[in-house]
């Protein structure tokens, strides 16, 4: 089976040609090639880094209160490049939040939320308070295990 046959086989089942036709018609406006335009893509990339490194950390992390600190110590000291994966996970989380806020403020101040994107902006603004409330409730219900220092294992 060559590449052409594979492409035809996939196109029969997934209608990829309609997606490629749609992508061919899309253009990035010339006036959008400023630094502010790229923060949405940076946020998405950092989210993908979070998912990838989070899955790698999940292979060794044990979330019980007895084993959490020891599992993080094991990741840092014994797992090959575990210290690097954990550091990338931590730094990309902080950078993702920073790029997310910069992206949201740039969309607001550059008025990029006008037609045809006003529905996504309104959905974003209406869902954020509910997500923050849920995240706060979840954080308050669980012990302080995120930093995994010696003080995280102590009672609050």
Question: How is this structure best summarized?
Answer:
This protein is mostly helical. The protein has 6 helices and no strands. Helix 3 runs antiparallel to helix 5.
What does the secondary structure layout of this molecule look like, with pairings?
Layout: H1 3-14, H2 16-25, H3 39-58, H4 68-77, H5 82-109, H6 118-141
Describe the structure.
The structure is a single chain. This protein is mostly helical. The chain has a domain of 52 residues. 67% of the residues lie in helices and 0% in strands. Helix 3 runs antiparallel to helix 5 and helix 4 packs across helix 5. The longest helix is centred in the middle third of the chain and has 28 residues. The protein starts with a helix and ends in a 15-residue tail after the last helix. About 6% of the residues have low confidence.
Give keywords.
single chain, 156 residues, mainly alpha, 67% helix
The strand count comes to 0
H and E order? HHHHHH
Low-pLDDT windows of residues: 136-145
What percentage of the residues does DSSP assign to strands (E)?
A: under 5%
Could you give the distance between the termini? Answer: 62 Å
Rg: 22 Å
Class by SSE composition: mainly alpha
Q: What percentage of residues falls in helices of 4 or more residues?
A: 55-70%
Give the helix tally: 6
Largest sheet: none
- C-alpha geometry: flat
Summed over residues and divided by their number, the pLDDT gives a mean of: 79
């Amino acid at each position: 089976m060559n590449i052409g046959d594979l492409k035809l086989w996939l196109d029969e089942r997934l209608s990829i040609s309609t997606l490629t036709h749609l992508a061919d018609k899309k253009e990035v406006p010339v006036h959008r090639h400023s630094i502010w335009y790229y923060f949405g893509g940076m946020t998405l990339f950092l989210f993908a880094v979070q998912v990838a490194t989070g899955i790698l950390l999940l292979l060794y992390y044990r979330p019980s209160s007895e084993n959490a600190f020891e599992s993080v110590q094991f990741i840092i000291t014994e797992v090959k490049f575990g210290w690097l994966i954990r550091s990338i996970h931590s730094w990309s989380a902080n950078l993702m939040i920073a790029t997310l806020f910069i992206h949201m403020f740039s969309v607001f101040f550059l008025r990029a939320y006008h037609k045809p994107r006003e529905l996504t902006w309104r959905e974003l603004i209406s869902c954020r308070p509910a997500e923050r409330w849920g995240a706060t409730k979840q954080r308050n219900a669980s012990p302080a295990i995120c930093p995994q220092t010696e003080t995280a294992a102590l009672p609050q």
